[in-house]
Amino acid sequence: MRSYAGVFVGHLVFAAICCSAGPVFLFVGYLAWLDDAGWSWVVSALGVGSVGTVMIPVTAFTITRQDFPRITRRDRVKGESGSYGDDTFVMWAPRSQEGPADARLVRADVLEASFVRYNPDGEATFTTYAGNYEPAEFTPVIRLRLRVHDAGDGDEAAGSAGCPGFEITDQWRVPPLCLSAVTAGRLVVLVGPAGPEACGKVTVQWPRSTLLAGTRTCRVIDLEGRWTDVTRRPGRQLEQMRISRAAGGVAMAGDTIDIRRLGAETAARYGALADRARAFPEDQAPVTEPGEEARWLADRLPGEKGAFGSVGRRWSRHGGHLVRARFLEMHGTTTFQDHGPVLDTVLRIHPVDGTPPFDATRRLTVPMNYLAVLHRTREVVLHVSPNGMSYVIDWARTNLLAGVTAARVIAPDGQEFPVTGRPDVIWPLMNLLASHALSNTTPVLDLRRHRMGAVAGAVMEVVRGGGHR
Predict the structure, then answer these.
(1) pTM (predicted TM-score)
(2) What pLDDT is stored for residue 200 in this prediction?
(3) C-alpha to C-alpha distances, 314 to 9, 291, 309, 381, nearest whole angstrom
(4) Would you put residue 388 in left (φ > 0), alpha (ψ -120 to 50) or beta?
(5) Is CB count within 10 Å lower at the N or C end of the chain?
(6) How many CB atoms lie within 10 A of CB 78?
(7) Element (H or E) spanning 172, and its range?
(8) How many CB atoms sit inside 10 A of residue 102's CB?
(9) Which regions of the chain are under pLDDT 70?
(10) Are 150 and 166 in contact (CB under 8 A)?
(11) What DSSP letter does each residue of 277-289 carry, written as one string?
(12) How far is CA 205 from the centre of its chain?
C-alpha cells in the first residue's frame, strides 16, 4: 500500500534533481558574498537561487497531490451537502455534434464490440490539451457492430419514415467518459439523409448515449411541479432528445429538466410527452442489454487490475479501515494520463462510525476499465487513515468490487467459488482481510495458503452465507 509520505519523498527527490540549479545559485551567491563581489551580482544569484530552491517542495507537493488521490478536509464541499440524492449521477461532457438538420435521431443496439487500438505516447505523467476534451491520442478506437433501429421502432410518435432498421460494422473513437454506453449496449445515433442505395452516414452521439444507457440519471419536472424519473426509459428519452434537438438544445440542471423553464412551444411538447408516458407507462430497460459478454472491453482497457488489496500492518494495527463512497458528479477536463482521463469529481463518502455522509470534490485520474462499467456502479473503495483525517481511493479494490476483474475464492479443500459481481460478498471479505492485516494483491483469494488459516473459517462463512455475516 503506497503511503502519501513515500510518494511525496519520491517526488521531492525528482523535483530536487529537476530544480538543482536553485541550490547551486544559492551556493554561488554565498561564495560571491564572501568574496565581496558586486552587490548586484550577489543579489541576482541569491534571488534566482531562492526561487529555484522554494520551487522544489512546491513542485513535489503539487505533483504528489495529482498523483496520490488523497481526500482531506480541504476537499469537503463547502456549505450545505446533499444537494443530490444518493442515486444521482451527473456527467458533464462536451455536447454531441448536431449533424445535418434532416438527419434522424434513433437508437442503436451494440451487438458486438472489440478493442482495436489505444496508443498514447506515454512520455508525460499528465498531458493537457488546450480546449480539447477528446484528443485522438487519448481516445480508444473500438470496432462496433450495431443494429440501427428504424425511427418508428418502439416510437409511434416518430413515424416510420426513412429506411428500415439495418446493421452496420465500423470503427469509432469512443470518449473514455462514454465507454459504459458500449458495455450497456444502447447508443443514440444520427442517421444522415438516405442516398439512392444506402440509409446514410451513421454518427454516434456519445454524450447522449450515456443518457440512454442509464449511466447518467435523468429526471423531469412537469408543468405542475411533479418529478418523474426517466432513467433507463429509452423510448421517452429518445423523444425528449428529438424535442431538445429541434429546439436547439435544452439545458439540464444537474440531472433534471424543468419544463417550467422552457419556451412555450418546447414546454408544450414536453408536457404532451409526459401525459402520454403517464397514460402508457414504459418499463425500465435492463441495466445492461443481453449479450454483454460480446461487448466486454474492460479487460483490454488500461487501468489497475482488481484485487482484494494490500494492507499495511501499521495502518491496520492503528485503526485504519475501509469505507465506500459513490460518485455523484464527473466533469471532463483537458488533462489526461495514459490509463485514463483526469476528471473533476464529487463523491459522497459514508463513514463507518455512523456519522452523516459528506460530499467531497477532488480532481482524479479515473481508469478507463472502471469507466467501462460506470452504468452498473459508481461506487469506489477508500482506505481511511488511522486518525480518520484522510481518505485514499483504492482502485484495485474498487475494480474488484465493480466486477471489472473476475474474483474467486478457493476453499481449503480446493473447491472454487466465483464471486464476480457479488459486492455483498466481496466487501465483507475485503474488510475481514484488512482487519487482520492480510494482503492479497490478486483477484483470487486462496485459503489453502498457510497465512490465511486464521480467517479461512470466517471467509467461508461469508461466501456460503451470501455476505451476511
Answers:
(1) 0.85
(2) 72
(3) 19, 45, 15, 20
(4) left
(5) C
(6) 7
(7) strand 166-173
(8) 9
(9) 1-16, 18-20, 22, 24-30, 32-34, 36-39, 41-43, 45-46, 48-49, 51-52, 54-68, 79-83, 94-96, 122-124, 151-164, 194-199, 466-469
(10) no
(11) HHHSPPPPPPSS-
(12) 19
Which grid cell sits at 294?
A: 460480446
The grid cell for 185 is 449496449
Q: Note the pLDDT tens digit of each residue in 16-48.
A: 676 667 676 666 666 766 676 666 766 676 676
Would residue 214 be called left, alpha or beta, if left means φ above 0 and alpha means ψ between -120 and 50 degrees? left
Q: How far is the C-alpha of 419 from the C-alpha of 204, rounded, in Å?
A: 35
Number of H helices, E strands in the chain: 12, 19
By the 10 Å C-beta count (0-12 exposed, 13-18 middle, 19+ buried), 244 is classed as: buried
Extract the C-alpha cell encoding 244: 431538445
The three cell numbers of residue 323 are 469505507
C-beta separation of 92 from 128 below 8 A: no
Q: Measuring CA to CA, how many Å separate 283 from each of 7, 235, 280, 375?
A: 49, 10, 10, 18
Q: What is the DSSP letter of 309?
A: B
For position 27, what pLDDT does the model report? Answer: 66
Phi and psi dihedrals of 294, rounded to 5? -80, -10
